[in-house]
């Protein structure tokens, strides 16, 4: 019987596990790093233990410290969540040696499926269909390049010990193989401590379909239907749904049987996911098995009515599965959207910083939100940049999609860049509505999903101006209320003047149009304003709530938006889309010239992993000059133009902050 559970993870999955465990009457112990001292999962726990510095290798990957914490708090079991130590066989064995239950599969199953090359051999013996490829021990560059040539381009290089898109590279041409192999190996070594790779045929327009399996220690194993995870960027999932669009009962049964056979081949126990890739004809091939709970498990919970964490804990206590295969239901349709701190306009580069404002939809039977952060929390460069998972349910796919669009319109996050508007565009795209999904969806519809910035409209300017005017009126009212003479005319913010019309000029710079400036002249008209915008005058009035809800009427048309100010910027959030306008101080002097002219700046904070150039080298625009690692992924840094390298500011292994100069070119002005 589990009485005290230690959660060896962080973020939304730690919060998710804590909720279920406490509902079952289990005491919860959290572990945390320096960066997570005030995190939500720590606040939710009954007890919490500090295990080290922010970098995962100094905290969440320290099995010894986690086991020390379990012993110190009397934990009966450890739940690894996903990521970190969840697929670490040595950690599972260490838990067993310490007499602490590991909420996961046996170490042997983790080893068998964690090594992709070994798992392919096992699946071949179990007659599970495989993608053509090389999964052997020879890791020399020449041999792997020859194998890729025999398979036929395009090919996919994958980290043998990997998952989550780390150490995965698509290679279109033989000339690119060497560089992509080196990058994949670096990424794999950094993320998993193992740089071995395998090479497979890359299928065009493939679908990523996975099967949730569950097994107990009594020999029972079933599948809980499928999930379609085809909407991806950087080989990582963005939207998942269950059931898969177009799935027939016959194909579900065939894939489910193959998944169960895969699990049984390694003596599996607990929750696991068998991932398949399917071509346009519906033929499917085994990719890998994730020996843990998946990020997207909530969509399976929504269509089965099950709590998979509760099932994990009950199986860990030795209980039998409570359902037979024929009893597993398919109840409607569910979709999950992953809200990330990342910039879709910069190739989905991770973004870090303080979440100065976060608003997520209220949960009910049709909408669920899993998150590990709150307003005021920081998105750290050390961990996955997920903000939340938004899960919706409907009687069918059309109803679920309608719920998703409505829920995304209620999501607001300011601070780091986010993918909220991007997700809303995917959800609104007619091809997605038609179920035309595959792993190339985002690239194929890039123009619609990632349109160029659109300049602010008169409506945007009017809403920003109205917000500032109402905010000033409110501040004046508060000041007056606290004054010894609240009726003094010096506290008035109604624009009254002894003679003539009263007005106020507000100037904004629009980042979406390279900082172009626009001035709004606000004339005070009773309780409202006449706002002279570049395209004409707009009659405006409204009310502003403390939480930023702006109820505005513009030329008789009502609109409710959220308006917030961060330093010298106004953000107007209308549905899933946020408009930023910078407030220009008319008393400020001329802008300084760009101090970093002639320098290549870091696009994000991270660590330099490799440098390909030296001072004096002549480089061409687009040439990869170095690589950086951030959020567990490696990112190429390319030359923005032709030039000659004058100075390298950082070398491999050094940390760098966002915006810092990495490379200085010869033609920089003195």
Please tag this protein with its features.
single chain, 670 residues, alpha+beta, Dna Ligase, domain 1, eight-stranded antiparallel β-sheet, eight-stranded antiparallel beta barrel, 26% helix
Number of domains: 5
Tally of helical runs: 17
What percentage of amino acids are in beta strands?
25-35%
Distance between the termini: 71 Å
Q: What's the CATH architecture name of the largest domain?
A: 2-Layer Sandwich
> In angstroms, what is the radius of gyration?
28 Å
- Assembly category: single chain
Kindly identify the CATH topology of the largest domain: D-amino Acid Aminotransferase, Chain A, domain 1
Number of strands: 39
What would CATH call the homologous superfamily of the largest domain?
A: ATP-grasp fold, B domain
Query: Which residues form runs of ≥5 with pLDDT under 50?
Result: 496-500, 587-597
Helix percentage: 25-40%
The CATH class of the largest domain is identified as Alpha Beta
Global geometry: globular
Strand arrangement across the biggest beta sheet: 14-13-10-11-12-15-22-20
Tell me what you see in this structure.
This protein is of the alpha+beta class. The protein folds into 5 domains: 4-103, Rossmann fold, CATH 3.40.50; 132-201, Dna Ligase, domain 1 (2-Layer Sandwich); 207-449, ATP-grasp fold, B domain (D-amino Acid Aminotransferase, Chain A, domain 1, 2-Layer Sandwich), CATH 3.30.470.20; 458-479 and 501-583, Glycoprotein, Type 4 Pilin; 599-665, OB fold (Dihydrolipoamide Acetyltransferase, E2P), CATH 2.40.50. The protein contains 17 helices and 39 strands. The strands form 9 sheets. The protein has an 8-stranded antiparallel β-sheet with strand order 14-13-10-11-12-15-22-20, sandwiched between helices. An 8-stranded antiparallel beta barrel has the order 24-25-26-27-28-29-30-31. α4 (89-97) runs antiparallel to α5 and α12 (397-408) runs antiparallel to α13. The N and C termini lie far apart (71 Å).
